[in-house]
Amino acid sequence: MLALRIYRWRVAVALLLCAAAGPVRAQEPLAGVGGGASAGVGKVEPIVSMRAGKAGEVPKHKKSYDVTVKDAAWQDTGVDVAAGEVLNFEAKGEFTLAGTRTVGPEGVERGFKDLLRIFPLNSAKTGELIGRVSSVEASYPFEVGADGDVRMPTSGRLFLRVNASEDLEATGEFKVKIKPGKPVASGPVGPMEDVSRMVSPAMFAEIPRRVRDQAGNPGDMVNFALVGTKEQVESAFKAAGWVEVDKTVEDAVVHGILSTLSHEAYTEMPMSTLYLFGRPQDLSFARGDPLKIAAERHHLRVWQTERTIGGAPVWVGSATHDIGFEKDQRNGNVTHRIDPKVDGERDFLLESFDAAGVFSSAAYVTPAEPVREARTATGGEFSSDGRIAVMRLK
User: Fold this and answer.
1) Is 386 left (phi over 0), alpha (psi -120 to 50) or beta?
2) Could you tell me which of 109, 245, 256, 375 has the fewest CB atoms within 10 Å of its CB?
3) Could you give the residue ranges of the DSSP H alpha helices within 243-342?
4) Per residue in 25-45, pLDDT tens?
5) What is the pTM of this model?
6) Fold type of domain 65-183
7) By the 8 A CB rule, do 27 and 33 touch?
8) Residues in a beta bridge with 44
9) Cβ contacts of residue 376 below 8 Å, gap of 6+?
10) Per-domain residue ranges for the chain?
11) CA-based torsion, 341, 343, 344, 349: positive or negative
12) Count H helices, E strands: the chain?
C-alpha cells in the first residue's frame, strides 16, 4: 500500500508539473527598459576557477590519514586532493539512525520509507559513507563505502559524511583511513587555449537573448554557453549531478513506477517545451531533491547552435531555479515561480561544473545588448547583470 501511495503521489506531481507547462512563464519587458536590454559594446571576463593553480598538481601526502566522521554533517578531512588522483579508503564503525537502524560505512538498502526522505546523495545507500571535494553547495557528492579505491573528480579539499536525511538523527562514528594512490593521467596532452581568448560579444550577436514559448512570447534569458561535443555535454552534466529529464508525462509515469519498485529516488520530472532558433530544446536537465522536485529544483534547457569554437560545437541555454508556485495574473492558473535573481542559477551551474572538474576554462561574456531586467507574464520581475557564462568542456 505504501508503494502504491508513493506511486500515486509521483504521478500527481508529474501531472501538476506538466499542467503548469506551456506559456505560463513567458516574460514581457519592463516599461521603459527597451525590451529588457541596454546598448553597449560588451566585454569578456576570464573566470578564475576554484581549482586555479591546482589542476594537474598532486599535493604532497603523508603515507596515510586517519579521520573520524561524527554526526550527520560534512566533515573537513584536512586532505587536499588533485583531479584524477586515486585514494584508498578503509572505514569501520557504525551509526544508529533515528535510534532504530544500525548501519556500517557500506550502508543498507533503502526501504520504501526512505523514498520519502531527502539524502545528501540520493543514489547512495542509507547510512553509507560518502564524500565530496570542496564545500560549495553545488559540489556533487560521490560514494565511498567501507573500502576501495575512489578517483577524485576534481582538485580541492576532501569532505566526508554519513548519508542520512535530517529526520534520521545519526549518532555514532566511522573511523576512516585514507591512503594516497597514484594519479590517473587524463585529458589532452598540453594546455588548451583559454576560452576567454576565443569568444567575443560579437559571437552572441545572432543568438537570441531570450527563449520563447509555443505562442512566441519571450521567455527565460539565455545565460550560459558550452563548448564541446554532445557526448562531452551529457557527460559534464552527469558528473555534476544533473539528470536528463523525462520528455512526456507518460515517460514520467513509467519511470516513476520503475524507480519506486527499485527503491530509487525519482528526480526526472518533465519540464515544459520552450523554443530558440525556432525549435524546441535539444536537451533538458534538472538537479533537485526527490520530495521537492515538483515545486523546487534547478533546471535548464540547452540548444546546439550552428557555431563552433576550435572545431567544437557551441551550445547555449537558459537556467532558472524553481522556488515554488504562484498565481498566473493573466488567467488565474498555477505556475512555477522562479528565483528573480536569475544570475544565481547561472552561477550554480558554473560552480557545479567547476566542482566536478569538467571544464578547462570559463569566461563571462557581456553581449552588446544584455538583458538586465524584465517582468514575467505572471507579474513577477527578474533581474540580471546580463552576463553569459561560457565554459569549454574537457
Assistant:
1) left
2) 109
3) 249-261
4) 333 333 222 333 344 578 999
5) 0.76
6) Jelly Rolls (2.60.120)
7) no
8) 365
9) 25, 26, 27, 28, 338, 382
10) 2-52+188-393, 65-183
11) positive
12) 4, 25
